[in-house]
Amino acid sequence: MNGLLIAGTTSDAGKSLVTAGVCRWLARQGVRVAPFKAQNMSNNSMVCADGAEIGRAQWLQARAAGVEPEAAMNPVLLKPGSDHRSHVIALGKPFGTLEAGEYATGRAGLARIAFDTFAELRTRFDVVVCEGAGSPAEINLRAGDYVNMGLARRFDLPVLVVGDIDRGGVLAAMYGTQALLDKEDQALIAGWIVNKFRGDVGLLRPGLDRIEELTGRPVLGVLPWLDGVWIDSEDALAAAGWTREQRGGTLKVAVVRFPRASNATDVDALAAEPGVTVQLTAEPDVVRTSDIVVLPGSRATVDDLGWLRSRGLAEALSRRVGEGRPVLGICGGYQMLAREIRDDVESGAGAVRGLGLLPTTVSFSPEKVLGRPVGAWRGHEVEAYEIHHGSAVAQGEAEPFLDGWRAGPVWGTTWHGTLDNDGFRRAWLAEAAAQAGVAWSPSPGAPGFAALRESMLDRLADAVEEHLDTRALMRLIESGVTRANGEPAHPDR
Ligand SMILES: NC(=O)CC[C@H](N)C(=O)O
After folding, report:
1. Burial of residue 1, with CB atoms counted within 10 A of its CB: 0-12 exposed, 13-18 middle, 19 or more buried
2. Per-residue pLDDT tens digits for 50-99
3. Distance CA 231, CA 332 (A)
4. The domains spanning 3-231+453-479 and 251-439 adopt the same CATH topology
5. Minimum-distance ligand 1 atom for the alpha carbon of 297
6. What are the Cα distances from residue 44, in Å, to 81, 127, 346?
7. 89 Cα to the center of ligand 1, angstroms
8. CA distance readout (Å), 334 to 31, 387, 391, 423, 440
9. Which one of 56, 346, 385 would you pick to mutate in the ligand 1 pocket, going by the greatest count of ligand atoms within 8 A of its CB?
10. CA dihedral over 57, 337, 243, 437, signed as positive or negative
11. Which atom of ligand 1 sits closest to the CA of residue 331?
């Protein structure tokens, strides 16, 4: 067995979730499977047990596959910082920066790393399920590509292309994607998957039949819109799946939408808590009046702090703190709460005045801290992870809170992922709700967040089993694209 590449007609077509679903489906068959994404552009990353930093989507896909997440599953991670620069993580460790203009030249070395890593990874697993990035139809990037068709060609991987029917234009996108590729790349396109479908497949069928005729490739399935499946998005806050399904919770949490938010998946577990409504916002009124405000992480602390001030959000925060209403700062958000931030590393701005809501001073160091710390709060165990250059020390009255500090209604920690811990999350929410004057308590018997994440992965795998032609998929994985393309569409139907 070998591998497969799951590409998309667009960003956000559902490649990550389809990859996760295919990983779990294969794992259920007893196949030893690893996820792989040659290059990810995301500020949502995770620290693996081996200390490597990878995209959260690959971390989640490894969980779906039932294997330990590791650096090789996402050898290149680009983290967009201030506007024209990306921080490069290679094999889990910092590897310099790429300016937007250096994209073509800077990438040759990264391509080599990605290819070498894939070649090694596949010696250790039965199957490697690769996820593409963006769309292979971005032919302007094809020459230096090592994530989509560039990877598929190098390793002769069959490519499945996922199209998002919710966005519309899916038939044109599939047809156009194939048409734009050169012959050799086209030869690797093995089939189509329609994703996020709601409604009657019968109505779609004539279009799918025609696409099969026109492209000579089978539609390997139509995946339905899956309500309530929104795990670990790769994109920033805007893409958090749960924003689509807000319920009328009694406890209103506002999460500030920083332009360079990082690890914003921290708030996913809040959104899943019964009786809690989470809203992403950049509105001063919402920040002033919500029951709880979360300042998430940021890949550009000083720049996002400037943005906070320019939007009137800093003032709204000070006012709510004056009224005793809780604010939780996480990593970059926690750094902003300080009296002073000394940063010659990330922004190069030197000493900058912070919001002054915690009695702390933050200093940035060139060394990046990557870790998986554990701690406790009020008797609740907390497993977390940390990814930062800046560290805070307190110089005044404050109460320890995890690795950080709390002063009255202001809470801050460098740790990410703390809210995934059920006992801690619920205890902290109850205390913060009381500060906000809201009667909220955890619902007895509500599922824990890890269980919820597992059930989402299982629903994805169930959808793969039910709606995709898994026999054709297995044949492709076992024999590659040539044989599969030599057979008629849907031989079993
Ligand atoms: N994860 C974060 O929020 C990082 C915070 C900040 N950019 C730092 O590097 O220290």
Report:
1. middle
2. 999 999 999 999 999 999 999 999 999 998 887 678 889 999 999 988 87
3. 22
4. yes
5. 3
6. 12, 25, 17
7. 14
8. 43, 13, 10, 22, 25
9. 346
10. positive
11. 3
Report the pocket of ligand 1 as residue ranges, CB < 6 Å: 262-263, 297-299, 301, 331-332, 346, 387-390
pLDDT in tens, 437-465: 999 999 989 999 999 999 999 999 999 99
Predicted ipTM of the assembly = 0.95
Supply 432's token pair. Answer: 């913060």
- pTM metric for this prediction: 0.91
Ligand 1 atom nearest the C-alpha of 364 is 10
CATH 3.40.50.880 assigned to 251-439: yes
In the block, tokens 């960003």 appear at 11
Q: Would you mind telling me the total number of residues written for the chain in this entry?
A: 493
Q: Hey, what CATH class is 3-231+453-479 in?
A: alpha beta
Residue 22: name the closest of 218, 151, 14 by CA: 14
Which conformational region is residue 454 in: left (phi greater than 0), alpha (psi within -120 to 50 degrees), or beta? Answer: alpha
- Residues taking part in catalysis: 331, 416
275 beta partners:
none
What are the boundaries of each domain within the chain?
3-231+453-479, 251-439
Query: Please, which residues bridge with residue 47 across strands?
Result: 53
Which stretch of DSSP H or E encloses residue 241?
A: none
Ligand 1 centroid distance, CA of 228 (Å): 29
In angstroms, rounded to a whole number, what is the distance separating the alpha carbons of residues 110 and 99? 14
